[in-house]
Amino acid sequence: MSEPCIMLLARADGSRVDTPFKQQSLNAADPFSSGRQIAWSGSDGISAGIVEAGESLDIKDFPHTEVIVVHAGHVTLKSRERTLQLAVGASAVIGRGTDVRIEAQTGTRWAFCAMATKAATPGLTPLDPLAHLSPSAAPEQQILIGATPQCRSGNAFEDATTDLRVGVWDSTPYERHGRPHKLNELMYLIEGSVTLQTPEGSSVTVNTGDSVFVALGAPCAWKSTRYVRKVYAVK
Fold it and tell me: What CA–CA distances, in Å, run from 171 to 151, 160, 192?
């Protein structure tokens, strides 16, 4: 896990992925320590992987901020302010310090991106796949191969202390040369397909319903031949 790379976390069809995972807690208070499988853990406090759960837990002070994307089963998140019902394909953010009850059906599995932080950002934030988006910057002209795409985005959750941003992004098709990835990023494809390629020629094709994590600095080229819409968590 020391070299930044592209890590496929989960496929929409539940098929096996080649990414190596390590069963490990995020911290001493991690409520999912027994089912936490970590693919990436960086020195900047960000981690990614999968969680397998099937129980109900009451957590008075959630110990980190966690973005979850459900790949199997069903999760109910309950705080004092709201209740979220998350079926397969649904995603949400659990903020650090949230008083939350988590009810996971047996066999529930989610991809995650977690951020260690001492600053509390309590609350539950659902990620609306149909959220209204605003125009955002396209990739730099010098790395594009072909036409400049039209890109849009919208943050649903922001943590100013860690600069973690979570939301939805979309783009018309485009291709760009490889470069070190500018951020740590969890992607969940709501629609479309994209191929991420390394300088050595290996590639990962991410399809609708798949989750992938690209570490900060990982060499990565992008090629999409149709419209793409994704949930992102970047830091």
Answer: 4, 26, 10
